[in-house]
């Protein structure tokens, strides 16, 4: 089983994220406790506005919790300064988004190279790293193309390559198939699954599509109104079957 | 992020909104050009004035006189006391001239020879003052713009007339060039000392003449007019001031014309040798004047130079440069508002991109540095363009001035200069001002909330 037997990759402990909107207090994430094992594929399932993306942003270090702790590799993200959080986002996690978020003015090669620039990787090593990442998503022949010259599936694959290029241990995906048709979405999910299996990468994926979550994730954490409603684990036999 | 990556990304970002960023950069260039043009005119005028004054010989000249001449002789005679100085006073004679000429950084030492004369032209008499001009006056700019030419040699029997005097001789002064005139002057002829034979010949300024006195004999010298000068060399100061006829100094020395100092030498019986009323020592550079002046004072002479006036001139031009710089900077100040506007617009347009950068690991500092780099690149390019534009404006003003001067029959001048310090300083100033302009936008971009930025459509 590829599920996190090697320890806990992420541990969220009573995490809350509240917003004050005028007189109203919005509880986007409310007292959520959750552990994600190293090498686990976890799906955060919920309807629109349930708080799953907010929780993912907290796990990514893009946002800070109002209360609670998020511990990754023994360090609480809530206690990190902005520089440490940036290093965490650069080297520990990779992110993919529903809207791909490739920079339209850059070629594929430059888009994938961007995290390497931010991580101050030597220029001499970058080309090989970019090529390697693009080979993982089968886009090594599209280096010089701009995002507008790619299909939606190719753009999401490029975004995956960009998330992988710094060799993170955790991949956070926010509705990665949300803008794709079902066939292309399947392609992306298979890629995620392969990264999870072949690289032992921990994956937390936000989705509102239960079938997708049930098919690819080891566990499904259901979120509603900012609260964690349930965490269901797929039977081991099913996992093994999927892994084959 | 590394500086190379920052610069690369900054240039790439600037290229993406090429029109807007070019216009902003042009604004910086115009601001810098205004600053450079103003200062180039200030510097150019300063150089022009300094050069003209240096050429006049006033600022690298030390006027040397014997202490006996400066009233001390009278006091000493009255009180029968020596000069109250640690260095004894001594006569300004030929040996002193040689000694001063031998000092380091002294180019030449020449006496003041100026005497009353009567010019005869077309058989009419014209009384005036004659001055001997050293050959160095040929290159020092004092005779720039003259009609005709300078003396063909240091011993040429030639003369240059001051324009007002030339007008007295002829209604068409320029027609005088090439004509001859006669110089009538009082030649000093030596009388033998008591007991000595009367052997001194005309023109021989021998030692015995001083001890024994001299007679004054009218003499004539034929000279050819070679030039007409509109202004007096040395602006009425010192030896050549108030003179209207100029002849080579070597010629003036051989004439043995009677001068005021001759009477003084006769009265001052303590000296057995001929002496000069004053000498002018030309120093290689005005900066060396104080040392040479001190050395001459140490030899027992009084000195005078216009070095303090030079210092005041520098102060004056520094103030002028400062004022010109302030006015020139106004355009640059306006250009900085353009930078602020451009970068704030860029933040709005690239809000989502900033969110992506942060999601991929960019620190607040990286974002700040990126916007700083963009402002800096605009400053650098605008600064370089501005220096070039400012230089062109300066050249244009010089050209226009010279066209006007040529119509007035005046020689051309160079009134603008962009020295290296001004070019580099202007570029550095443009970068600093641009970075200051980028301070607010960069800070604003750095503090964008990445989650909100990623949501931005």
Describe the structure.
- The complex is a heterodimer of chains A (about 240) and B (about 450).
- Chain A has about 240 residues and is an alpha/beta fold.
- Chain A has a domain of about 60 residues.
- Chain A has a 6-stranded mixed β-sheet with strand order 6-7-8-3-9-10, sandwiched between helices. Chain A has a 4-stranded antiparallel β-sheet with strand order 2-1-4-5.
- In chain A, strand 9 and strand 10 form a beta hairpin.
- In chain A, helix 3 packs across helix 4 and helix 3 packs parallel to helix 5.
- The longest helix of chain A is centred in the last third of the chain and has 17 residues.
- Chain A is globular.
- The relative contact order of chain A is 0.19.
- The N terminus of chain A is likely disordered.
- In chain B, helix 2 crosses helix 12 and helix 2 runs antiparallel to helix 13.
- Chain B has 14 helices and 11 strands.
- Chain B is elongated.
- In chain B, a hairpin with a 2-residue loop joins strand 3 and strand 4.
- With about 450 residues, chain B is an alpha+beta fold.
- Chain B has 3 domains: about 200 residues, no CATH class; about 80 residues, Alpha-Beta Plaits, CATH 3.30.70; about 150 residues, no CATH class.
- Chains A and B meet through helix 2 and helix 3 of A and helix 1, helix 11, helix 12 and helix 14 of B.
